[in-house]
Structures
1.
Amino acid sequence: MSKPIRLNSHGHRPFGIRDKLGYMFGDFGNDFTFILSTSILMKFYTDVMGVSAGIVGTIMMLARFVDAVTDVTMGRICDASKPTRSGKFKPWLLRMCLPVTIASFLMYAPGLALDTVASWSAGTRVAYLAFTYILWGSFCYTGINIPYGSMASAISADASDRSSLSTYRTIGGMLAGMFIGVGLPLVAFDQVATSTGETLDVINGRKVALAALAFSVFAIVCYLLAYKLITERVPYHGHEERKKTSVGQMLKNAVANRALISIIAASILMLLSQLTMQNMSAYIYPDYYGNAAGQSASSIAMLGGMLIAGAAAKPLTNRFGKAEVSAASCLFAAGVCVITWLLKPAQMWAFIGLQTLNWLGLGVFSMVNWALITDVIDYSEIKNGVREDGSVYALYSFARKLGQAVAAGLAGWLLEAIGYNSNAVEQGISQTQAVKDGIFNITTLVPALGFLLLGLVLIFWYPLHKKQVDANIRMLKEKHEK
């Protein structure tokens, strides 16, 4: 006979592997649409839809102004809502799993009707991109991601448990990245011969749309598993106090919160580095190295680097602190990027090997960054006397989207600046050597700068190093036990 499950004083199952796996599946579901957009959306709209890279990047940037309203609004909705039997944040997984996955598919749906799309004007194509991208990212993705991220502090109050949730969340994103990064390049590109006899790897819009549909279905399954496995068990404090806190006061508190502002800056820099590498992988392998399959190999190597980082993250951060270890790993990644730019390896496999070291360096911060935001939420409660999990996470989520937009916008503008020809496929020609060299420089130097600045922010600006975090946890434990 199996041993009976020992419930805690609130009648909940103790924190364990079910919660970790459930939280992993939540980010697995999120990243089936998020990583898909960062990996292929710009390439799809430049090479399939014929929209210039600069316009695509600008739309992604402008959408973040909408997020400034929707993210904060969703955070306030979460904070003001009353807990249900299944929890305060978890019900949103059921409410939003269909809208977010349908909206994601709509961004790529024109790939199924390219004959019809061929008759669209340039303005119609841009308008379609703007509408579907904002629908997905600013409304539907916000509606599920803000509650999901806020839920971490409701699953467990223990710092070690939260670090585990952060690690498993990152693993979920890595698994989605592996499915997309490995599988998509193998099915989404066709080899086409040019008039000069050169063979090009050309993106196939119909295959991208079918892949997006499949990933949407997978995302729904992951959200349902997350809902089934996760338990919210931390008592909810300060509901009435939170109602009295105005949006203006919340924003005033945020601006004065050094920990929140610095982690927002760190998040933007992390995504600038990470997403530039992901966005540019759709260009450097097919255009610079002439081998789209290299993107799949790079994704496998990325997974290896991140898994090593995941295994090392918890023991290192438990001993030295999350911020301290993250800063060191990001400075290491910056150094690898500079070395890659100096060496400019002619062999694709040498480049992939160096990129693996980049992902190893980034991996530690990626593994613990979600635990860092729970530290910030604790710090905010001590500083302001009110716990605003949803509102603080919403501001952090907005910063992440801003980082996503900056990376996409910057990549698009830099591709325009180096003269990238979005009509090269239609014309049956390859990019010029100058453009190829520019693609290599963007892929290496932009992440190098981002990693360097990220490490400096964590060292000199972010205040919640190990000693302070441990003290905050003790203080809140005493407060909640009264």
Note: The longest strand covers residues 189-193.
2.
Amino acid sequence: MTRRGAALEVAVLGLLHNAPMHGYELRKQVNALLGWGRVLSYGTLYPCLKALGKSGYIVADETGDPAGRSRRGRIVYRLTAEGKEFFAQALEESGPATWDDETFGVRFAFFARTDSPTRVRILEGRRSRLEERLENVRAAGQRKRERVDAYTLELQKHGLESVEREVTWLTELIDRERSGGYDNDTDITKTPTSPKK
């Protein structure tokens, strides 16, 4: 299975862990989870659901249409005990596949269900991967600088700044995780304030 496929499986299992859902709602939730830059089609979702069902991780229950608009009911997907176990095992993994662009965001979305040492390993791995990428891009940029136009240089600069911001963010998350992580009352949307002297 591709990394993108594995990430989709984790996303689907994680969302179904919260509550059973029908395909339309599940697609909407996965798209929200994956972010604005990626849109999941039904042509990608339904083969994933079929594979998860074949593995015994989810079951599909047909329910009647409460509004009576159609004879055919909705299919609602729910997680099985095997699916919950598989999802828990997937969240314990912290190797190189969890640091990649394709999987990191999905894994991060379920960090609340992951233990602190696993979170730190994933964050450190992601940071290390990005620092390596930065080093390679900077070295290549120095060699090619004379041969590219101003717009290409601006695009490279934008890419470098984006990765540098993510490295800074990851470092802050690692430091926070090592100092106890988030408590249930923490509002992560607010910028932390310095203590008054």
Note: The helical segments are 3-18, 23-34, 42-54, 81-92, 101-109, 116-144, 150-178.
3.
Amino acid sequence: MTLKIFSHHISWVYLLLFVTELLIFFSSMFFADRIRFMFSPNWYTQEYRLFTSMFFAVMLSCAAFGLGLYRRSLSWSERGLLTRVVISFVAALGLVSFFLLLIPNFTISKGVLAIALSSAFLGMICTRFLFYKLTKHNIFIKNILVIGGGKAAQKIIDSNAGYIHRGFQVLGCIVFPGEQVIIKPSLIMDNSKSILELITQYRIDEIVITIDDRRGILPIKDLLDCKMVGVTISDLRSFYEREKALIYLENLIPSWFVFSEGFANGGTLVVLKRFFDLLASLILLLITWPVMLLTILAIALESGFDAPVFYRQTRVGENDKYFDVIKFRSMRVDAEKNGAQWAEEADDRITRVGRFIRKYRIDELPQILNVLKGEMSFVGPRPERPEFVKQFNQSIPFYNERHRVKPGITGWAQLCYPYGSNEYDALQKLQYDLYYIKNISIFLDLTIIIHTVEIILWGKGSR
């Protein structure tokens, strides 16, 4: 189940987990000084205790959020859940130390900080243990009845397999005569019963309609009865947008865009987003300039001081305007002597330094200049090369709609889908790009930026 905050769908279960752990972090610092100064004078005032506790809780929560610990698509197969927790605490300690150095007259006793970190870590481990134990049972999971038994129905059934918390489970499907059935026979519901009887028997929370040709097939009266007793009725696209944070493209028609809510990219949002871009870019530049200097030196030492350090490449921007994206050069100088091509898994054109900076997205840092010039946004669909855009415009429906907004250094598709190197991958990533364009907001931008920390640390989606 999800909540909609600034048009973005958030799992209320993970939101509850976030708030619970935020309170644990706050309490850990709030009582730490009383433990530390139990037998000695305590100089902490109530106001200072409240300030440091909130500061400590926010730092820890942001670090955990950035490491993907509140991501609803977090799966059991994601490597190192405990490692993520440990790294989040190390990152939070780094953030706390940075602000202690930055802000005059702001100090936290080392003993108090050690006690707060220890109790917060123990509290988070206990909370996570309880949370993961509960998720193994079908607690807080919606029961879904699917209308249809074809490919779309099977895709819903498979869509959240392996997640730590599955937001829903498909209890069964209603199939119709002549329909191509792909689902397992055990999931086919008894057609002799009305839908209202089925939802009562199986305690159904939502009905999802997956069949495209509904004329003369859908039992409208039965569905109306279900609607009137409080059961949610969703079409396939609404369901995917809410549960998977993407726009399902199969059999999508233009009128859906016309009558759908969202896609409000104008007015005050443009001004706020530009201010946000400038602020975020300047902060990133302030933080990463030492890394950029070291990267320049490393590229020069590997390839020679006569070889170019930066790489300019033509990309397609907002409203199909061309611009030159700036990156650190990660391939040989003659890498594209045979024309434009995708980067492969073990591409021999990539240099040793290039492989490292691509893995941790350091090669993207010079694009800060593109943002400052107004050619790119900090967050948005990744800009693509004209050669590939021309190809995808012909083969992928609505591909050009991703150029309605400025491209970004990072984006929703980069968080939700691995590196793409073919047309199929481009189609999958487009579904996430369209979700971002439909639900664009400063809140979503901030969410993406924080989550990008996970992408950088784990080297996800790089090639």
Note: The CA atoms of residues 32 and 115 lie 6 Å apart.
4.
Amino acid sequence: MRSAADRGADLVCLPELFRTRYFPQTQDSQNFDLAEPVPGPTTEYLQKLAADLRVVVIAPVFERRAAGVYHNTACVIDADGSLCGHYRKMHIPDDPLFYEKFYFAPGDTGFRSFDTAAGRVAVLICWDQWFPEAARLVALDGAEILLYPTAIGWLRDEEEREREIQRDAWVTVQRAHAIANGLFVAAVNRVGHEGDLVFWGSSFACDPYGQILAQSPSDAEDLLVVDCALPRIEQKRRDWPFLRDRRVDAYADLLKRFRG
């Protein structure tokens, strides 16, 4: 965070569950001891640091809401150190080595954005990044920058071609959210080996046209500092007025699990 601020960053986003290794690889009730309240030790420390550095901070934490109720949560801390609010991960995966349903209750904060010193920002977390509905709703709430703190990777024994397909799909879907909603998107992923997972890094930021502004390697830690020229949002939405031309009268079936 200090290095980012020294390089001129106004907004810093940390990866999903950044304080520990990715513990949902196993189902172990002792891991619940890693959780903390919000506000709590991590947010209090980062609030002081944010105020000192004058940066907005996205801080993903393992939240203990109550005994037996835990969430995968991202806190939004403004540049004056105040806690703007938090988002609780809505889409919870349950796959081999990603046993998140064992740990996290689905979020109940809704899809919302927050006014900060760096602009109006929204946070969605990892598995949320595959759902266009979530990105659209934060755009409708005025988000200018959509951040995806993430912990996604390959199983250690997956073939190279399959790895390339998965990573390319991950980049493509988030670029599509930027295009469809006319906003900036930044994905912040882990990197390196943890147990039987190989996190693919590749953190990136793209503009409202989906153009990648910068991207990290897949096999090394990195710090990206990217200029998000917010006036481009207005121009993009004038050129391609997707939000204007939405047929809100015709989308009621989106509230159904499946048609048929």
Note: The chain has a mean pLDDT of 97.
